[in-house]
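TICKET: design request
STATUS: open
ATTACHED STRUCTURE:
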């Protein structure tokens, strides 16, 4: 029950943030926007209907297509966003007091990009989907084997191109800024709390380093069989994954034992298994 409530709250808050950013920032400053929101803008300009109605029609059509082509299970993951996003958008359209709260167009694009990325991330983190043009990209992938990322780029580009006659250069530029920022914030939101550092250590004193990592840093270690390329001597490579806050102490520990150790540090977005997503023994 608790998980269901968290899931529902994340979907509602995520769509609320997206609708707020689109309505009170992007649309208020006539900044180009992608996805179904962009289709709503195009519908408003050429058909004279409210953006929220255009979004609702596009979302509804894509939802039905997703149900028919991709199946009931997938369609249900998009149901929440399909229903609530147009409603939130309409709500903000009718709240005149929120329009114009950010006078600067560039700042509006920056804030909107961050809010949209955060909103999408909140929805995706709980296993749901924002639906929209993502459904069309998945349909094209299933029917014609077109890679999803290529379809998404092509669809968003088409939506943006349809808005070019309606916007000036700065409004197009601010839209690109918002799109780039939303992608960055989305990635950060999806990996929040799980980003770690992976360290590989090549050293003749691997046993001493292993003991230090296990007992001083309270971290796990895996020994990988290796062979030195020049001498052919068999050895061991240490592999460990630690939070970034432990990285300086680990570096100092390795350097204190073997200043000549060869150390590789890599960023990892997610780690699962014993000691991470599962309880430690």
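STATUS: resolved
RESOLUTION: sequence designed for all positions
ATTACHED SEQUENCE:
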């Amino acid at each position: 029950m608790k998980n269901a409530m968290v899931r529902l709250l994340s979907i509602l808050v995520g769509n609320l943030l997206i609708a707020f950013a689109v309505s009170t920032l992007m649309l208020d400053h006539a900044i180009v926007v992608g996805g179904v929101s962009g289709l709503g803008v195009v519908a408003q300009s050429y058909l004279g209907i409210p953006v929220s109605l255009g979004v609702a029609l596009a979302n509804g059509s894509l939802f039905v297509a997703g149900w028919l082509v991709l199946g009931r299970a997938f369609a249900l993951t998009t149901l929440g966003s399909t229903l609530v996003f147009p409603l939130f958008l309409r709500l903000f359209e009718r709240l005149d007091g929120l329009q114009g709260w950010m006078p600067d167009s560039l700042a509006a694009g920056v804030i909107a990009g961050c809010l949209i990325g955060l909103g999408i991330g909140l929805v995706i983190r709980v296993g749901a989907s924002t639906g929209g043009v993502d459904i069309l990209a998945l349909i094209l992938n299933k029917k014609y084997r077109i890679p999803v990322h290529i379809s998404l780029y092509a669809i968003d580009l088409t939506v943006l191109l349809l808005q070019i006659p309606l916007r000036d250069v700065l409004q197009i530029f601010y839209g690109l800024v918002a799109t780039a920022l939303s992608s960055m914030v989305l990635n950060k939101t999806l990996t929040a709390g799980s980003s770690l550092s992976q360290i590989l250590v090549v050293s003749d004193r691997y046993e001493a380093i292993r003991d230090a990592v296990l007992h001083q840093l309270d971290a796990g270690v895996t020994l990988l069989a290796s062979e030195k390329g020049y001498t052919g001597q068999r050895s061991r490579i240490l592999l460990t994954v630690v939070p970034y806050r432990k990285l300086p102490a680990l570096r100092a520990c390795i350097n204190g034992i073997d200043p000549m150790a060869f150390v590789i540090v890599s960023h990892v977005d997610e780690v699962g298994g014993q000691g991470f997503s599962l309880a430690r023994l």
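CLOSING REMARK: The chain has ten helices and four strands. The chain has a mean pLDDT of 87.
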